[in-house]
Amino acid sequence: MLYDIVIIEDELDLGNVISEYLKLRGFSVLWFKTATEALDYYGANQLDNKLVIVDVQLPDRNGFELAAEMVKINANQPFFFLTAHNEKQDRLRGLKLGAIDYISKPFEIEELVLRIGNIINKFSGKPKMESLPKPDHISIGDISYQKDQLLVLMPEGKEISLTVRESEVLDCLAGNINQVVKKKDILLALWGNDDYFNGKSLEVFISRLRRLFKASERVSIENVYGLGYILKVK
């Protein structure tokens, strides 16, 4: 049987909460408590599940090693990490392995569900809007956006790591500086549909980027009520 979601999480309370909540939301879920169990099952069944969620700190092997082994079996398997840490090097290591995203503990279960729904939509085979290649380094006012490294260099010199989805949202806005970008267009380009839950998820990522840009005197993101967003650069 192929599952919507495979979870590898050794914390019993957390794993049970995630598993049961996702089942209530209509997902089929398979939960493993160790890397060994997960890898044995994954390898024996040649699985191609919609999403694998990997805890970075497992009792018998770290999540990075487990994900690397899974990628050897199925290079197209979408996965992301749960982690109690938010270190830049750990994030980059995971992203280089091909992770779609990270979520740091503790987290709101509803945010996790939104991210899962978005990822499954993205990899469900729905057509995506094509776009022209963009440069790896983009100057946005007094901010440098280093797309190839998923980094934003702030005016005071501080480097801030972005998730893949944050980077994608910023791409949409940075390609249309001082112009309205329709919310619907972003949703269709990145999620494949513009339903309510994807809209709420986009609002979360916009809020994160907006907080990030508070350190800038020249860059801001403004809402255009009922239409979309403007990345304003003075």
UniProtKB/TrEMBL annotation:
Residues 4-120 form the Response regulatory domain. PROSITE patterns: OMPR_PHOB, RESPONSE_REGULATORY. Keywords: DNA-binding, Phosphoprotein, Two-component regulatory system. SUPFAM superfamilies: C-terminal effector domain of the bipartite response regulators (SSF46894), CheY-like (SSF52172). The modification 4-aspartylphosphate is found at D55. SMART domains: REC, Trans_reg_C. This is Response regulator transcription factor. It comes from Pedobacter jeongneungensis.
